[in-house]
Records
---
Amino acid sequence: MAQVSLEINGKRVCHEAPARMHLGDFLRDQARLTGTHLGCEHGVCGACTVLLDGEPVRSCIAYATACEGRHVTTIEGYDDDPVMARLRPAFTHHHALQCGYCTPGMLATARDIVLRLPDADEARVRIELSGNLCRCTGYMGIVAAVMSVLAGLRAQPDAAVSALRDALAQGRGAAPAAPQAAPAVFQAFAPVAAPPAPAAPASAAPVPDAASPARAPGKGNRIEGGFTVPFPPDQVWAFMVDLPAVAACLPGAVIQEHEGDRVKGKIAIKFGPMAAAFNGAARLERDDAAKRAVFRGAGQDSLSQSRATGDIAYLVHALDDGHTRVDVDLQYTLQGPLAQFSRSGLVQDFVRRMIADFGKNVGARLGSGVGDGPPAQAEFNAVGMFFSVLWMRIKRWFGRAS
Ligand code: FES
Ligand code: FES
């Protein structure tokens, strides 16, 4: 792993990343800027095009570590850009997008054409755009949109666009100006300093405020859930930060390495048509005083090569003398073939059901006495869970219809 520091859309961003992680994955998984799309991941389709120091590059074939210290502009970073201000309405007017998958890369390339080739004719625009593939084959609208912006600038030059063209001609790059206010990026759980409390161990890391209503909205998928157990909060908290014990309650999860608050392991999921076995690593950030923690992890499915990144925040609080509520807030992004399932209501029900089953397992283990020997792994009943979720859905559909 290496520490990578980039300026993305005018904002300094630092994250750990594997040495071979490409810039596209870094932008999506680490910086959580999911406007950059990945298609072929071989430098062919152009969907992943972003600006590096003002010039278009394929982010899927640029190592993130090789971009250290450089300026990256993604589709989220053009708020104040005078060329994008013309391209956006032109794309709308000429119906230049259908599914929109190629659009972030098309726009980055189109902006480059407008700046570099003010006199381009249609044939030249088509050649310049040939490195960006549109799977919807919507080329006529895209070419028409670029041509209309070029024609508009020829008829009525724009001083801001001319300044960018001059900067490019002088080799100074044509990156858009940094936005006045940085665009909101995916920030699942904003870190806050742990409140001073003498009882908190000195090593407790600051963790997000899981209960804060002012939390920044994320761009990934979000599922909230929770469970109640008939035990006092101190006992539940001690259990919830014992990683092997927690993993033993999560159906399908196995810890392979465990050191302090870091774990490596795998979780196998089978649900209807979806089967996955994610291998990955995670770390726990905890605030013992407030009894809240965030489990941050990332993994890859060995079957479909899909990648998942997620944060699970939980907050343990007392309901009454003998009962404790654990609120769980999951935010995640999925990339690859499994991404098609990530937003479906069925998957959301499935995850809520997983949380409920996890709560039952926690209650059962607390009742049987934590620490009495190694934890027995919770069994995963895929068929039972599939039909249970389906049944929940059917009941809801009929409830709505009646
Ligand atoms: S995803 Fe980068 S060129 Fe296709
Ligand atoms: S609009 Fe669908 S891929 Fe281009």
---
Amino acid sequence: MRNVTLDGVGPVSALGFGCASLGSRVSAATGRAAIERALAAGVTWFDVAPSYGDGGAEKILGEALRGANVAVVTKVGLVAPRRNIAKRAIGSIARPLVAAIPALRPLVKRLRPDGAQRVALDGETVRISLFQSLERLGRDSVAVLALHEPSLDDVRNPDVIAALTDLRDQGLAARIGVAGSPDVIAAARAAGLPVDVAQVANSPFARNLTALKGAPAFTVTHSVFGVAGALDALKRVARQKPEAIKALDTDDLPALLLDYAFAVNPEGVVITSNYAAGHLAANAAVASRAPDVSLVAKVDALIGAP
Ligand SMILES: NC(=O)c1ccc[n+]([C@@H]2O[C@H](COP(=O)([O-])OP(=O)(O)OC[C@H]3O[C@@H](n4cnc5c(N)ncnc54)[C@H](OP(=O)(O)O)[C@@H]3O)[C@@H](O)[C@H]2O)c1
């Protein structure tokens, strides 16, 4: 596994393990097994949030990591909706169905009654949220505390900025980040929020990394494959331009997207969802080779980028 370095944290794996589905689409037992495989493959970056896994991901991750010396990123700003017993039951029925018939996933996703809810942020909410995350994770500190899809008002709120700076000064979060759009990240910086880590969706079809402006930060990207996202879009391109794909000397489209993700972010982390054993093995293999920066222009040319 290739490592990169985040100042104030140290070497971390270039491949991050995403926990958005941990405890929702993916059961706790399946999730724990996947986390064990990831640790064995050398993954040391775990991305979680209070809202992930319908509110269950932090606890499952904490138990699975059992204090392992890894970088945990958690967030503040979104919480899981309250789910009653009936809604939980729908979740447990849907899980094996989706595992057996993956094509049902977008439908089940739509049937999920309610998504994550935004929390109105102030300094106190930020502090309490981190304390609760640490409790669920069973850790004394996290590598990064990031604002989770914050609004412009959130990132300009001096009370929020002061709380984040205090938490970093106290060592409860080694680094502060913003996971959101390039515009909001730019506004956060302009307001004096310490953006040590900028986290954005990025793929050849959504070039948010190039839209990041201002002082350099450690960059983390996600949405490499996406549900009905970049992988499906690249498959369409491959059907339309089979010769052009052949010229890239690969028919492994997921690996091409992940190679691209590392090529545009060679010094940062790329988070993927790795619950299937085959996906982790494939993604870890890509994360073990040196990024090929020349791939960026080739893929951009293939999909007709500006
Ligand atoms: N605002 C934010 O900060 C934000 C937003 C979105 C996502 N994220 C983070 O990023 C993580 C990943 O989310 P994502 O939306 O970017 O998902 P993703 O990595 O694009 O994965 C989407 C789907 O692709 C599958 N997959 C993984 N590797 C594959 C491969 N080599 N070939 C074919 N399919 C593959 C995954 O399957 P399996 O999982 O079943 O193996 C998953 O079903 C989240 O868990 C979260 O931690 C953060």
